Amino acid sequence: MVLLSSDRMDSLFSPRCVWVNGPIIIGAGPSGLAVGASLREQGVPYVMLEREDCIASLWQKRTYNRLKLHLPKQFCQLPRMPFPADYPEYPTRRQFIDYLEDYAAAFHVKPEFGSTVQSARYDETSGLWRVHSSSAKSGEMEYIGRWLVVATGENAENVVPDIPGLDGFAGEVAHVSEYKSGDRYKGKRVLVVGCGNSGMEVSLDLCDHGALPSMVVRDAVHVLPREVMGKSTFELATLLMAWLPLWFVDKVMVFLSWLILGNLAGFGIRRPAIGPLTLKNKYGKTPVLDTGALAKIRSGDITVVPGVSRFTKSRAELSDGTALDLDAVVMATGYRSNVPQWLQGTDFFGKDGYPTTGFPNGWKGKSGLYSVGFTRRGLSGASADAVRIAKDLGQVWREETKPTTKRAAGACHRRCISVIF
């Protein structure tokens, strides 16, 4: 660590600053929790900043009631703590939230809630990260430390496409993050824009609550059965990839899908030319795991329609020239990373908010910068990166900070609100 002169300290530390003897973690979702727990086992202190008032805000505030984990629980557990034995193979939304809260309590993860990061930048002269945040409780704050862990993840911000006429549509328009259940849509004609896992499940939920859903399928998409002969499709693919090349496993997955689900082209669902696993690895496009929506599509309870050209006051005009009369629209158009909005002065993250270095090496950048939750491999990928980060930081922290922290902290003692050890 670079030791600073008294003059440099005076200019570096503002009246409302916090010196962090360890990493500054941005985000308290599953990825942030996994890093925090793994760092505690390494004996490394940290501060965790979270803009919301709870952990895992995506799961607590922006998910629908019927949601379950799409993969078996053994592929979704965080480091050092399996799911309770009495949990089902696919835990519910509420069960997963309970698991995360128990996890945070077990590893004493205590984020600074309500702290919205405005900017984070590496100071080349001092060799320190400067993170500016704001909160209703403490106002403007600056956190200063040697390391920064970006754990805001892939789903920080809603994505809403700019479709002509949407602003003038008179019915209700909601992003899937605002959707809880189909109760309020009973008897209504609802257009679900998007055919990923969320779009399929919301369409199914609308059916179950007596609504009349249509689902936009604009592009080709892989739909796979969630299970094959009682075994998770994901687990089967993982086992096959340990022995067979990816292209061959792709062929097996497509064949099994055709065998179990049949040819979906007649229902308006086309398969991409690229296999499902290759598509996921190269472009981050997750295949849809069917949980019952296809049966509703076959029965006609869910109508598949092409892309939307424009909205009018009460209708959606489609790319094939037809139109739908509508009462409501649910935008199941996904989420994106928000890292480019606040992380400055580094090319480690691209414009899309993902590390420019792909898996499995995207967890570590330069100058003490780390990232977790950007592997496009779900919770298992985030957990693996969290363990890597903690081991790496544990070694570096022990080597770099113990002899110098007391001197640096002492030099800024009168300038900082607090020193976090």
TrEMBL record:
The keyword Transmembrane does not apply. PANTHER family: FLAVIN-BINDING MONOOXYGENASE-LIKE PROTEIN (AFU_ORTHOLOGUE AFUA_4G09220), INDOLE-3-PYRUVATE MONOOXYGENASE YUCCA8-RELATED. SUPFAM superfamilies: FAD/NAD(P)-binding domain. One of its GO terms (molecular function) is flavin adenine dinucleotide binding. This is Flavin-containing monooxygenase. Belongs to the FMO family. Its EC number is 1.-.-.-. Gene3D superfamilies: FAD/NAD(P)-binding domain. It is an enzyme of class 1 (oxidoreductase). Its cofactor is FAD. It catalyses: indole-3-pyruvate + NADPH + O2 + H(+) = (indol-3-yl)acetate + CO2 + NADP(+) + H2O. It comes from Hordeum vulgare subsp. vulgare (Domesticated barley). Keywords: FAD, Flavoprotein, Monooxygenase, NADP, Oxidoreductase. InterPro entries: Auxin_biosynth/cation_transpt, FAD/NAD-bd_sf, Flavin_mOase-like. One of its GO terms (biological process) is auxin biosynthetic process. Pfam families: FMO-like. The keyword Repeat does not apply.
